[in-house]
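Annotated sample (chain length 80).
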Amino acid sequence: MRLVPRQLLRAGMTGNVPYYGGRLTPAQAYAASHPPPPPAPAPPPVAGSGPDPLGALQYLHDTGVITAEEYRDLRARVRQ
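Output written by the structure step:
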């Protein structure tokens, strides 16, 4: 009496992948019916050609990453 199906004894079966006689596992079926969300779009480029620290600071201020006070302090430091 064989306790293990012949398919499991094949040389190519490695790892912890369950074999269901050619059918998809429940996890594989779920992954196939629920594709991952598309990647997030890239942030818009900062205005200007090349590295522009003032343009980058303006972008950070416009998007709300830094406050108006931080923007003024950093802008003064960049201009020096």
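Annotation: Residues 68-79 form the longest helix (12 residues).
Annotation: Residues 17 and 70 are 54 Å apart (CA to CA).
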